[in-house]
Amino acid sequence: MSKKILVTGGAGFIGSAVVRYIIENTQDSVVNVDKLTYAGNLESLETVENSPRYAFEQVDICDAKALAHVFEHHQPDAVMHLAAESHVDRSIDGPAAFIETNIVGTYTLLEVARAYWNDLSNEKKSAFRFHHISTDEVYGDLEGTEDLFTETTPYAPSSPYSASKASSDHLVRAWLRTYGLPTIVTNCSNNYGPFHFPEKLIPLMILNALEGKPLPVYGNGQQIRDWLFVEDHARALYKVVTEGKIGETYNIGGHNEKANIDVVRTICSLLEEFVPNKPMGVTKYEDLITYVKDRPGHDVRYAIDATKIGRELGWKPQETFESGIRKTVEWYLNNKKWWSRVLDGSYSRERLGNQ
Ligand SMILES: NC(=O)c1ccc[n+]([C@@H]2O[C@H](COP(=O)([O-])OP(=O)(O)OC[C@H]3O[C@@H](n4cnc5c(N)ncnc54)[C@H](O)[C@@H]3O)[C@@H](O)[C@H]2O)c1
C-alpha cells in the first residue's frame, strides 16, 4: 500500500535525492518540510515538483505550531528527518544555528510527531515510523587503519556539528525508550553526487578548477573519508524507512575510503579528460592544488562497516567511487545553470522576492 512520507530538509542535497527517488521510483507521496536556509534549493526538485504526489511546506522544524499544522493537514505515515545544519566549517564559525536546528529542532519535531502519533488509530500507530538520518561523524576519529565504525561504536563527536547530531541521535533513542515512538536511526558516511552545494569538498574542487582558481586542501590532505554516492544513500534510506526494524541503528557506507588529496587528484584527472581546454595560465589542473591551514579538531579517518544493512535489508551500493565520481563531474559539467545560480545567489534571491 502506498504511503505518505514527511521528509524534512527535502530541498537540501541528500533530502532532494530522497524526494526524487521516492517520486520517481515508488507510488508513495512526499510532503517536503523545509525552512529553505542557504542550503535549501527548490531548483533541485524541478523534475518532481509538478507531481500530484509531491507537496512542499516552507516550515522551520523549530516552529512547533506550524509543524503540528503540517502533520494535521497531511496525515503522514512516516517521517524521514534530514533537516539540519550540515557544514562542519560553518559549525566552527557559528555553532548557534547547529544547536538550534539540530538539537532543538529535532526535539520539537519529536514532540509534534509524538502528539500526532498518540492520536492515530492502533493500525496506523503500529505502522508509523520516525526515521532519523545522521552521520558517521558522531563516532569521532578512527585511529587504526583497520578499524571501522559499527553500530555499537561509542559516540565521541569532535566538532560542534557532530556533537549536535550526536545529541539529536540520543534524543531520538530516548523518545523510543521513554514514549514508545517507533524510531529508527541511520548513520552514514560522506555523500557526494549531483546537486551538492558548492561549499563542500567535491563540488568546490570541480568548480574552482574550471575557473582556474586554487584548490584548497586542508593540512596534508591525508584525512580519509568513506565516500557514498548520494543516490545509493537515498535508496538505502527508503529501504530503512519501509523495511527497517524499530529501535535499530543502521550504518550506511560505500566501502570507498579515500584520502582527500586523492579525491582532488581524481577530479583533476577527470577534468583533464573532459575539459582539456584549461583556463588561461593553467597547464595542469593538479597545479592548482594549494595546501591550507588544517581545520581545528579535524578528524583523521572515518570508515563505515555497512555489513548490517546489507545482511538484514539486502542493500548495497550500486556505484563504486570511480563510477560515481565520473558521473558527478559529468553532472557538474552538464548542469552549469543549477550551480551558477547557486554561486551568484540568484536561487535564493528570487525565492525571497517571491515570498
Ligand atoms: N552530506 C553528507 O555527507 C551527510 C552524511 C551523513 C549524514 N548527513 C545528514 O543528512 C542530512 C542531510 O544532509 P545534507 O548534506 O543534505 O544537508 P544540506 O545542508 O544540503 O540540507 C539541509 C536542508 O535542511 C534544511 N533546513 C535547515 N535548517 C532547517 C530548519 N530549522 N527547519 C527546516 N529545514 C531546515 C535546509 O534548508 C536544507 O534544505 C543531515 O541531517 C546531515 O546531518 C549528511
Automatic annotation (TrEMBL):
CDD domains: dTDP_GD_SDR_e (cd05246). One of its GO terms (biological process) is nucleotide-sugar metabolic process. InterPro entries: dTDP_Gluc_deHydtase, NAD(P)-bd_dom, NAD(P)-bd_dom_sf. Residues 6-328 form the NAD(P)-binding domain. It is an enzyme of class 4 (lyase). GO terms for molecular function: dTDP-glucose 4,6-dehydratase activity. It catalyses: dTDP-alpha-D-glucose = dTDP-4-dehydro-6-deoxy-alpha-D-glucose + H2O. It comes from the Bacteria. Its EC number is 4.2.1.46. Its cofactor is NAD(+). Keywords: Lyase, NAD. The keyword Signal does not apply. It holds the Pfam family GDP_Man_Dehyd. Coiled coil: none annotated. Belongs to the NAD(P)-dependent epimerase/dehydratase family. dTDP-glucose dehydratase subfamily. This is dTDP-glucose 4,6-dehydratase. It comes from Rodentibacter rarus.
